[in-house]
Design a protein that fits this description.
The complex is a heterodimer of chains A (134) and B (244). By secondary structure, chain A is mainly alpha-helical. Chain A is 52% helix and 0% strand. Chain A has one domain. The chains are: A mainly alpha (134), B alpha+beta (244).
Chain lengths: 134, 244
C-alpha cells in the first residue's frame, strides 16, 4: 500500500516538474518585449526568478482574488497585482495589428485553463484588451 | 538545567522577544519594499458627499452631468435593453410643487446613505458601504437577485440585462449584476472629483468631505438651508440638495 502511495505521489510530482520550465508560447505582446529585453517579470524579493514564476503560476488566482477584495472593499489601488496590468502585458496582437481578446481560445489567460478545465467569468465584466491603442 | 528565578526569567524572555521582534520587523520591511506602492485603505475619518443647488443647476447642466457619467463609466449604449431595462446611474427628475406649480429639476443618483437599505437587504454582502461612506456593489459577489433595487427609495440602481464588451478599464460591467453610481470611486481615490461634478462649470454641484470643517461643502452646508430627499426615512444621505 505504502509503495503504491509513493509511486502515485512521484507520478504527481513529476507531472508538476515536467511543466515547470515549459513556457506557453503566447506570452503576449508587451510581455514578450519585456522578456526579450532581459527583464525578470514577476521577480520577487528574496526569491529566484524561476521560483517567482512558479509562484505566479500557482498562486495567481489567490493573488487576484485577494486584491480584488482589497480594491473594492478598502479602496486599495495600484501595486503589483492588478487585473488590468495583466491584460496590458499579456495581450497578443494579430497580423492586422489589432489586439486579440486575452480570453479567446489559446490566448494567455486561456491556454492553461483549457488544459485544466477551468472557465473564468472575469471577462464578462473586465475588458479583454488594453484600453490604450497600439 | 539551572533553575531560573523570576527576575532572570523575565530578563531572558524580554531579550529573546525583542530579538525576534527586530528580526521579524526586518523581514516585513523587506517584503513591503519589494512591492510597488499600493494606496492605503480608506478610513472613516472622511465622508464623501455632494451638495446640489437646484436653483443654480440648469437643465443643460443636468444633461451635461448625465453625459459625463455615461462617458466616464461607459453605460447607456446597451442596444438590446428597452424601457425600464436601460441603465440609469444618474437621472433627470422633475419635481412639481402642487400648490404653486413650481417645477425644479433634480439630478438624482445613488444618495450614498449612511444607513443604506440596499446593504441591509443584500443576501451576499455584495451591496456594501465603504469606510468613507461610498455605497457600492461588489459585483464579484452579486448574484443579480435585485433585492437592493427594490429596497432603494431613490430607484438609483440598474441591472445589466445583456452581454457587454469593450467596457471601461476602470469600470468592469457585465450581464446579471446590479450597478449604480460609484461616486467615481476610482477618481476619488486618486484625489480627483467625480465626473458629473467636473462637468458643471458653476458651483451648482459641490463635492467634498462632509466631515472636514475646512472643506467647501462642509462650510456651505453650515451656512445655507439644505435638505435630504426623503429625509423622513432617516437614511442620512451624503447627497444633499438646496433650493427645493
Amino acid at each position: 500500500m505504502n509503495r503504491l502511495i509513493i509511486v502515485f505521489l512521484s507520478i504527481m510530482l513529476s507531472s508538476v516538474f515536467a511543466y515547470a520550465d515549459q513556457h506557453i508560447p503566447n506570452l503576449g505582446k508587451k510581455a514578450t518585449e519585456f522578456k526579450d529585453e532581459g527583464e525578470k517579470a514577476h521577480k520577487r524579493e528574496g526569491m529566484s526568478h524561476a521560483a517567482s514564476l512558479i509562484l505566479q503560476r500557482k498562486m495567481h488566482p489567490e493573488l487576484l482574488m485577494h486584491k480584488r477584495d482589497k480594491t473594492l472593499r478598502q479602496g486599495v489601488r495600484g501595486g503589483y497585482i492588478q487585473l488590468k496590468k495583466c491584460i496590458e502585458c499579456h495581450t497578443s496582437v494579430d497580423e492586422n495589428d489589432e489586439y486579440i481578446p486575452i480570453n479567446s481560445a489559446d490566448q494567455f489567460c486561456s491556454t492553461c485553463h483549457q488544459k485544466v478545465g477551468i472557465s473564468l467569468d472575469c471577462f464578462s465584466c473586465h475588458r479583454t484588451t488594453p484600453s490604450k491603442e497600439i | 538545567m539551572k533553575a531560573l528565578n523570576r527576575r532572570e526569567f523575565i530578563k531572558t524572555t524580554t531579550t529573546t522577544t525583542a530579538g525576534v521582534a527586530i528580526i521579524a520587523s526586518g523581514i516585513t520591511l523587506t517584503t513591503y519594499a519589494a512591492k510597488p506602492q499600493e494606496s492605503n485603505p480608506v478610513t472613516n475619518e472622511k465622508r464623501w458627499g455632494m451638495l446640489i443647488d437646484t436653483n443654480k443647476l440648469t437643465e443643460t447642466d443636468i444633461d451635461d452631468m448625465i453625459d459625463a457619467c455615461q462617458e466616464e463609466q461607459g453605460w447607456g449604449s446597451e442596444i438590446l435593453s428597452t424601457g425600464d431595462q436601460k441603465s440609469g446611474w444618474i437621472k433627470k427628475i422633475k419635481v412639481k410643487d402642487t400648490a404653486t406649480d413650481r417645477i425644479s429639476n433634480l439630478a438624482l443618483m445613488c444618495q450614498h446613505c449612511e444607513e443604506p437599505p440596499c446593504v441591509d437587504v443584500c443576501p451576499t454582502n455584495a451591496s456594501m458601504k465603504r469606510e468613507d461612506g461610498i455605497v457600492l456593489v461588489d459585483k464579484h459577489l452579486c448574484i443579480g437577485c435585485r433585492y437592493c433595487m427594490m429596497a432603494c427609495p431613490y430607484d438609483a440602481r440598474s441591472f445589466v440585462h445583456e452581454e457587454l464588451t469593450n467596457q471601461k478599464e476602470h469600470m468592469p460591467r457585465g450581464k446579471g449584476t446590479v450597478e449604480s453610481c460609484t461616486m467615481c470611486v476610482h477618481k476619488v481615490d486618486k484625489g480627483e472629483q467625480p465626473a458629473c461634478v467636473e462637468a458643471v462649470d458653476s458651483d451648482a454641484v459641490i463635492f467634498g468631505d462632509l466631515y472636514d470643517s475646512n472643506s467647501k461643502i462642509n462650510q456651505t452646508l453650515k451656512k445655507i438651508q439644505s435638505t435630504q430627499i426623503r429625509a423622513d426615512l432617516n437614511l442620512n444621505t451624503a447627497v444633499r440638495y438646496s433650493g427645493i
